[in-house]
Amino acid sequence: MKRATFAFILFFILASLSAHPWKPRHYVIVDTDGGVDDRKAICLLLASPDVRILAITVSDGFHKSPEAYSIVRSMLDDLWHEGLPMASGTEAITLIDESLNGETSPVTFIALGSLETAAKAMAGAPSFTKKIKQIKKMAELYLFDKKIEEVDCRFDVVAIVLGDGSNPTITHYENAFY
Q1: Where are the domains of the chain?
Q2: What's the CATH number for 22-149?
Q3: Interval 83-96: pLDDT, tens
Q4: 3-state DSSP of the chain
């Protein structure tokens, strides 16, 4: 009886130690166009214990955003992630802003499709350039890779949106990251 009690207590101690007690190292917001490769990347992020997806936004790309939204939402529901916030269009910028305002840790914005949502978030979500740290690091990596040192650099973002008409919309964001 003592062995059974000891084994029972040991089992619960080991089970509690193998639980996921730590805080994730990476907080991300994912922008997707709903393609197969994007859905695979989202599944890998969901499976990682070191990543917490704060929100998923959907933009035009491989699929138009309403179809992409439906595909990704269905996938999340099938994987028991019904509570993960998702949005497309103008609601995506609101969702990004709300997700960033509620977070104290640095957040990485992962654009699996175009950078259109990131460009719109820079204009419409004030917290985007303050709390998104990974894009800035990517810009710094460019400077490091090109061995550009001791030079004041400005990172601009140029968003080119191809609409249904013949004229694209071009928006220039000066000093996007500081």
Answers
A1: 22-149
A2: 3.90.245.10
A3: 888 888 888 888 88
A4: CHHHHHHHHHHHHHHHHCCCCCCCCEEEEEEECCCHHHHHHHHHHHHCCCEEEEEEEECCCCCCHHHHHHHHHHHHHHCCCCCCCEEECHHHHHHHHHHHHCCCCCEEEEECCCCHHHHHHHHHCCCHHHHECHHHHHHHHHHHHCCCCCCCCCEEEEEEECCCCCCCEEEEEEEEEC
